[in-house]
C-alpha cells in the first residue's frame, strides 16, 4: 500500500546496520529500538534495513514492523543511484507500508537509527564503504540520522579519517558507548551537543525474570567468538584449558552461543563451530552443555543470568552479563569492552586476545567467582545509572521527532 508525503499520525522510523538473525547482539539492538519506539509511539511504523533480509523476513515481528534489504549489493545497485536521483527530483519519494521497499520509499522515513555497534575504527577499513553508504543516501536527502551507542575511532588512519569526515559531522547525534569513544569523537571535533556518553542500548533490553545471584547454581558460562577465533589460532585451545580448570574446581561449564547461523559452518556471525571445537578439545568437554541455538537475545540473556560468572568474547554477551548483575571476565579485541566495564569498575577483568594466557584467565575467573556476591551487588548498584544514560539517547531522538 502506497502513501503520499504529508502529515502522519505516527512516525516511520528505520533501523539500519542490525539484523534479527545471526548475531544476537545485533538482534538485541534492533529489538530494543523497536521496543523503545513503540513505547513512545504505539502506532509507529518501523522499517528494519537488514543485511540478512531473507532470514529476517521469516522472524516473528510485531505489527507494522517490516524488513527490507540492506545487503551490500542492494545498497550499491538500488540505494546509491536511487538516492542521487531523489536528491535531484524529490517528488519521486514515496511512503511504503509493507516489506521489501526500495530506497525511494525509505527516504521518506522520519528518522534513521544506526545500530552498527562499531564503526569508523582504525584497522577495520574494509567495513568503511558499509559504514558510509548505509547512511549517506539518507543524509543527502534530509533524513534525520542518529548513530546510537557505538564504539567509534580512533582516526589515525587517513582512510578512516576521510570516511568519517563524510558522515559524522552531519549526523543529528552520535552516542559514544564509553569514555574512550567519547574522547575519540571530541578529538575528532564533535561537541557535547552532537555527541554524548551513551551506554549500549541493550542495557534496556531485559528478560521478564532474573535469578537472584545467591540462588544460582555453580554454573559458569563461556561465550566464545568466531571473530576472536579468527584472530588467534590458539583461542579454542586456551578456552578449553580454562573450561577444564573450572570443572576441576567443581563448576559446571555451559557454552553459550551468542551468535549462530543454524545449518551453516561459515564463521561470520556464527559461534557454534567454535563452541563445539572448545568442547572437543577439553578433557571434560562431554559434560559441557551448549545452549543458544534457536534462542533469541532475551532468552540467551536469561541463560547468562543463571550463571555465577561468565567468560565472554562477545560484546553483547558482556552486556547481557552486566545487565543481569553477573560477574564477568572478558577476552576482547577493541576498546569497546573496557570502556563499558569501566562504568562498573571492572576494567581489570578485561584481557586482550593477543595476550591471553589460559592460567591467567582461569585464575581471574576463579577470583571473580570467589568475590561473586560482592561483584554482583556492585553491578546491581551501578546498573540504574547506566540504564538512565542509555535511555537518554532515545529521549534525544523522540524530542526531535515531536
Describe this structure in words.
The structure is a single chain. The protein is α/β, with parallel strands linked by helices and 402 residues long. The chain folds into 2 domains: 220 residues, Glycogen Phosphorylase B (Rossmann fold, 3-Layer(aba) Sandwich), CATH 3.40.50; 170 residues, Rossmann fold. Helices cover 42% and strands 16% of the residues. The protein has 16 helices and 16 strands. The strands form 3 sheets. Strands 2, 3, 4, 6, 7, 8, 9 and 10 form an 8-stranded parallel sheet that branches. α10 crosses α15 and α12 packs across α13. The chain is globular and about 70 Å long. The N terminus is likely disordered.
Spatial extent as radius of gyration = 21 Å
CATH architecture of the largest domain: 3-Layer(aba) Sandwich
CATH superfamily descriptor of the largest domain: Glycogen Phosphorylase B
Tally of separate helices? 16
The rounded distance between the terminal residues' Cα atoms is 25 Å
Tally of individual domains: 2
Biggest sheet descriptor: 8 strands, parallel
Number of β-strand runs: 16
CATH fold descriptor of the largest domain: Rossmann fold
Helix percentage range: 40-55%
**What is the residue-averaged pLDDT?**
94
Class computed from helices, strands and strand pairing: alpha/beta
CATH C-level class of the largest domain is Alpha Beta
List the uncertain runs.
Answer: 1-8
Q: Which term fits the overall shape?
A: globular
Strand content: 15-25%
